[in-house]
Amino acid sequence: MESYKIHFTDKNFLISFLGGLLLLGVSLVTQFFINGYVNNLPSAPVTDLILSNIRVYNVGGIFVYGSVLLLFVGLFVGLKEPKCLPFAMKSVALFTLIRAVFVILTHISAFPTQVVIDSPMFDGKFFYGIFTGNDLFFSGHTGLPFLLALIFWDQNRTTRTIFLGFSALFAIVVLLGHIHYSIDVFSAFFITYGIFHICKFLFKREWELFLKN
């Protein structure tokens, strides 16, 4: 509570925090409309070295509920360390916006044998757009936890390991479920690494705040 009192009574922190919240909201709305755009485009699937040689596995439950678990873990870590919130929110927002740009550049439909994501808890157009569709390149489920791992790399070894575990798990799951092409998964690590360093440059003040003891 003392940490919250210190940070949320600081005008500069509040401005940065609210800016991160606004940017994150904009990025999520953008993602929603981009998903709808690419899902309505006529496109065709392509062959894949890995997916074409392994059968599809029913990993829908792990894919969906693992995402929910990642969300709660991310919220817990963020709320535990409020000084990280401005940088983390702005980084996730930029990650989402950059991915949205990548998604609209090339139009490829999902692999024909993609596992059916069927969960009554996540019915509706909004969740369909997040967990299925043609927004393939690059894999957000793989890249986002890797981004969080990079953010906490030198700050908290346990947190870093947890997020790396999520990233590896989702990389395997989306391949086994034929949810993403292999290029979507493997490129996510390289692109996310680049995004992280762009974030450190663009949000230098927020990054320096996060590094303070």
Which tags fit this structure?
single chain; 213 residues; mainly alpha; Vanadium-containing Chloroperoxidase, domain 1; 9 helices; 0% strand; membrane; Sphingomyelin synthase-like domain-containing protein
Gap between N and C termini, in Å? Answer: 16 Å
Average pLDDT: 89
Question: Under the CATH scheme, which class?
Answer: Mainly Alpha
CATH fold description: Vanadium-containing Chloroperoxidase, domain 1
SS summary, helix count: 9
Q: How many domains, in number, for the residues?
A: 1
Order of helices and strands: HHHHHHHHH
Report the radius of gyration as a whole number of Å.
18 Å
CATH architecture: Up-down Bundle
What share of residues are in beta strands?
A: under 5%
Helical proportion? 55-70%
Organism: Candidatus Yanofskybacteria bacterium GW2011_GWC2_37_9
Keywords: Membrane, Transmembrane, Transmembrane helix
InterPro entries: Sphingomyelin_synth-like_dom
Protein name: Sphingomyelin synthase-like domain-containing protein
